[in-house]
Amino acid sequence: MGEIGKFIRGNGLQKKDFRDSGVGCIHYGQIYTHYGTSATKTKSFVSPELAKKLLQIETGDIVMACTGENVEDIGKAVAWLGKDNIVTGGHSVVYKHNQNAKYISYFMQTNLFFKQKKKYAYGAKVIDIKTDDLAKIQIPVPPLELQEKIVSILDRFETLVNDLTEGLPAEIAASRERYEYFRNRLLSFKPSTEKI
Prior knowledge:
The protein is α+β, with helices and mostly antiparallel strands.
């Protein structure tokens, strides 16, 4: 990954710094508790003064947690697709690259990525990973057009599985309606004039 982009570690953001408004921010703990593959809005904000001191995230950057309580949490990533620049702080890494951001974010959810990051994770109670080690992780890099097709397919699957209105719940509701329709048709009999 180091050949196609650059990892930059953040510093200085704590939950006590959160404000109701201001500059959007992503805290490392929110990456594995709140965000999915990508985001266009932030859950939290910091003051403009503090934002100037924090690591900047631009549209298309990947934000990942590099510290966590277990190996599963480290390396969790979200592609920032919002229009405005936002910030992040300590225990986060920003990956700046020229690839499809969602493609990279999806890759960071794969077993291939997990097996590689696991080799570099260290610590006991708190697990961490270094930016130099993240740069060693191998990633398949097809042409951008193919990355976009892959993302399109994965987006549809993600919607199917996760979206409450379009995904599995909607499909289950539609199946239930079909079942009820056929049940009612099959079990509706006209009154017979014949005697049994």
